[in-house]
Amino acid sequence: MIYLDYDGVIGDTENGLFDDYYRIIEYRKDFTKEQYIKELDWRSWLRKCGPKKNSFEFLKMHSSKYVSILTTCWSINEAREKIIYLRENGLDNNIIICPGHVLKSEVVCPKLGLTRHLLVDDHIENVVDWEQSGGQAFIFEKGPYKGYNTVYSLEEAFDFYYC
């Protein structure tokens, strides 16, 4: 099974995400990033950002039986809007919500028997934890990080995993 992160891998949501936050904390010093994420208008943000590269088209060409979306969400609203947005765009993959402050390896087993599931994620912390938990992982578009594989497209990740 292949698990793909949404933010920064499938969706281009991380680019500029905190621009408004940095303006707000100039006058609200106690306002946290977590509060900002929870209060964000996710419906508008997802539509403004759109998919990363050709990710939606790529996912539609591959069996949803073997590819799930594993995304961290900091609020029910964020989770709901991501699900709605993905379904509106014709993606029928399973969508697994990982609550903030919970490791993805605690939500999904990275290894089942002899099978090492693949995680493609743009955060090195998730990649390290996934591999330490027995799975296989690629860092997406960042790095290089010593000892970890970096991929720059979903095609590259799939080709590498299936070889």
Topology (elements, then pairings):
Elements: E1 2-4, H1 19-24, H2 33-39, H3 42-49, H4 55-60, E2 67-73, H5 76-88, E3 95-99, H6 104-107, E4 111-112, E5 115-116, E6 118-121, H7 124-132, E7 136-140, E8 149-151, H8 154-162
Parallel strand pairs: 1-2, 1-6, 2-3, 6-7, 7-8
Antiparallel strand pairs: 4-5
Give an account of the 3D structure:
38% of the residues lie in helices and 19% in strands. 30% of the residues are buried. The strands form 2 sheets. It has a 6-stranded parallel β-sheet with strand order 3-2-1-6-7-8, with helices on both faces. With 163 residues, it is α/β, with parallel strands linked by helices. The radius of gyration is 16 Å and the shape is globular. The protein is built from 8 helices and 8 strands, in the order E-H-H-H-H-E-H-E-H-E-E-E-H-E-E-H. The protein has a single domain, classed as HAD superfamily/HAD-like (Rossmann fold). Helix 3 crosses helix 5.
Q: How helix-rich are the residues, as a percent range?
A: 25-40%
**What would the principal axes of the Cα set say about the shape?**
globular
- Find the structural class using helix and strand composition: alpha/beta
Mean pLDDT: 92
Order of helices and strands: EHHHHEHEHEEEHEEH
User: What topology, given as strand order, has the largest sheet?
Assistant: 3-2-1-6-7-8
User: How many domains comprise the coordinates?
Assistant: 1
Report low-confidence residues grouped into runs of 5 or more: none
**Total DSSP E strands:** 8
Distance between the termini: 14 Å
CATH topology: Rossmann fold
Number of helices: 8
The largest sheet, given as strand count, sense and whether it forms a barrel, is: 6 strands, parallel
In the CATH hierarchy, what is the superfamily? HAD superfamily/HAD-like
What is the level-2 CATH architecture name? 3-Layer(aba) Sandwich
Rg over C-alpha atoms, rounded to the nearest angstrom: 16 Å
User: What is the CATH C-level name?
Assistant: Alpha Beta
Strand content: 15-25%
